[in-house]
Write a structure and sequence with these properties.
The protein has one domain. Helices cover about 65% and strands about 0% of the residues. The protein contains 9 helices and no strands. Helix 1 (about 1-40) packs antiparallel against helix 6 (about 135-150) and helix 4 packs across helix 6. The radius of gyration is 40 Å and the shape is elongated.
Amino acid sequence: MDAATQSRPARALPVFLAGLEAGMLGALWMLVWMGLGSTWQRRSFWMPENLMATAFDRNAPIRGSFAGSTFSGLALYLLIYSLLGAVFATAVRDRMPTVRTALLSTVFGLAWYYLSFHLIFKSVMPLVALLHVERPTVLGHLVYGAVLGRYPVYLRRLETPPPEVIAVESPEAEEPVVEIPQAPPADEALGPLNTGGGSSDSYLS
């Protein structure tokens, strides 16, 4: 029991990062679905991001296409929904089976839609609450919840230690010893000239 309690703080960071990653991926898929729904309604694909950009300037005109303010709306979406994913993963962790986690995350995404677009955004970002297309946005949040439910996959990947690399030291090759032959002494080199017992005159006869 104590060992399990002590291991929880060590696992808090991987759980947070896994939820952050799943939340960001879920937000991207949600925005793709909302953009397609906006196009089906004969509006701009970037309308959800442009509406979210009004959080920084309510008096700014809403762009009908991709503009510089689209980046701020996209960044705000990714920030909010990535942090939501991290909070959800930190709260749930790995206490449930995979199927229950996926169902709970889908309900979480749907509940966040009604909480944000029908309550919070009405006072903070009224144009987002007023002008968003409800049906594609609801389905987009269901997609977000489904992708968020895959955070245990990212958690296992983060907690799996990398394979150990065993360094095999090859024996050092011994340097070959080169033997340099020594020259024979001068006396031995002139041996045939000094042997025979005769004088040097015998060679002249």
